[in-house]
Amino acid sequence: MFRPLSSTTVRWRPIEGAGLEHLTLRPLNASFGAAIRAESVIIGERDGAAYGLRYRIDCDAGWRVTALAVETTDGRSLHLLSEGSGHWRTAEGAALPHLDGCIDVDLAGTPFTNTLPIRRLGLGRYPGAVKLKMLYVPFDSFEPTVDVQRYTCLEDGKLYRFEEDDGSFTADLSVDEDGLVIDYPTLFRRLSPETT
Fold first, then answer.
1. Which band of pLDDT confidence, cut at 50, 70 and 90, is reported for residue 174?
2. Rounded CA gap, 81 and 83, in Å?
């Protein structure tokens, strides 16, 4: 459905307000301890507050998140580790049982994290909607919480519906041959590379 991963750089901008994200996604040699690494820099604003940050997400070959690091320009940071099956701990090794069951992460302010469950599950039009517990990190508090979301494939490898489980938000996301979002209605639009 999706092509094998090669090094890719993309940029998105928010539909409203000022901002920009620059992301590099690449396969890694197994000696790095991860098979896939996403590194990004984001500047933006949310609820009238400006922010600047860098994040890194490491995944195994099956697109299961194994490490998350987020650092802001004002000195806040969050570093979490997982074995890939939904058990999280701090970088110092303290268990975070309230996040059990969250295999994927969702970071506020980026469309990239939608790629994680789409690629990991290889979602096709059947069996329909898939309900997932996501490790959600809001950029204002940096306090990771659990967020329940649903993903549904509308067109294999091209169009996916994202829904908050409580029905408060729904968006149909078009993606490219890497599973990266092209258009995220009302929130983000990709700037590069141009898609046809």
1. very high
2. 7
